[in-house]
UniProtKB/TrEMBL annotation:
Protein's gene: map
Keyword flag Protease: yes
Oligomeric and partner information: Monomer.
Name of the protein: Methionine aminopeptidase
Residue sites binding substrate per the record: 83, 181
Record carries keyword Hydrolase: yes
Domain Peptidase M24: 12-245
Species the sequence originates in: Rhodococcus tibetensis
């Protein structure tokens, strides 16, 4: 069941979203050559706790996972698409890094992700990150009252496929509120005009995950969490928590 949020509840989610946004900005600033993923995770943990929030991902244990997630961030590098566990790996020049961050503040959740390149960037990686951000922008623009859920997926998918990129199979965005994952599932491809009606008060995490070589398939690492492209191609991930307002989408994690 899709839960509609009141204006006050959306404002509470905006506060959680601002914790996430500030944390992602600080992590991006700190992500230099030689810095470990564990260093970035420790920084995020400290910032989230100092804000009076708690890390949303830490100790999350869905039924499909072999163990609880151990980090405050998902840190996915190069061919890792999503759900990378922070570890001792130290960033190298040219790494394409995707950082997913979530926080719960006063009982409400915020969730967002960014991708960026460390040091000197390859032009193909710059284009991939830009396309992922643009696909997200297209999806957000379609998140308007009176549209359908399929309009979001159609906007993301048409842009991404048109630019020649793959879309991670079997994964997409989700409703969000008091829980990180709520109804509905938000596919990154869809048919315009199809699916549930978008209504004011719905809050969605919209998150395209694009693959450079046009493939969609993935494999799991031995850790049971990290998803990697099957071909070894690089990937990028971009996400915002978005409320559907009376006049259109409101990004809560800007």
């Amino acid at each position: 069941m899709v839960e509609l949020k009141t204006a006050a509840e959306v404002q509470a989610m905006r506060a959680a979203g601002q914790v996430v946004a500030a944390t992602l900005a600080a992590v991006r600033e700190a992500a230099a050559v030689g810095v470990s993923l564990l260093d970035l995770d420790a920084l995020a943990t400290d910032l989230i706790l100092e804000s009076g929030a708690v890390p949303l991902f830490r100790n999350y244990h869905p039924s499909w996972a072999p163990s609880a997630f151990p980090g405050s961030l998902c840190t996915s590098v190069n061919d890792a698409v999503v759900h990378g566990i922070p570890g001792p790996y130290r960033l190298r020049p040219g790494d394409l890094v995707s950082i997913d961050c979530g926080a719960r503040l006063a009982g409400w959740c915020g969730d967002a992700a960014i991708s960026f390149i460390v040091g000197t960037a390859d032009l193909a990686d710059i284009a991939l990150v830009a396309a992922t951000e643009a696909a997200l922008a297209h999806g957000i623009a379609a998140a308007r009252p009176g549209n359908r859920l399929g309009d979001i997926g159609a906007a993301i998918g048409l842009y991404a496929r048109g630019a020649g990129y793959g879309i991670l199979a079997d994964h997409g965005g989700h409703g969000i509120g008091r829980q990180m994952h709520e109804d509905p599932h938000v596919p990154n491809e869809g048919r315009a005009g199809k699916g549930p009606l978008l209504r004011p008060g719905m809050v969605l995490a919209i998150e395209p995950m694009l693959i450079a070589d046009g493939s969609d398939d993935y494999r799991h690492d031995a850790d049971g969490w990290t998803l990697r492209t099957l071909t070894g191609a690089r990937a990028a991930h971009s996400e915002h928590t978005v409320a559907i307002g009376e006049d259109g989408p409101e990004v809560l994690t800007r």
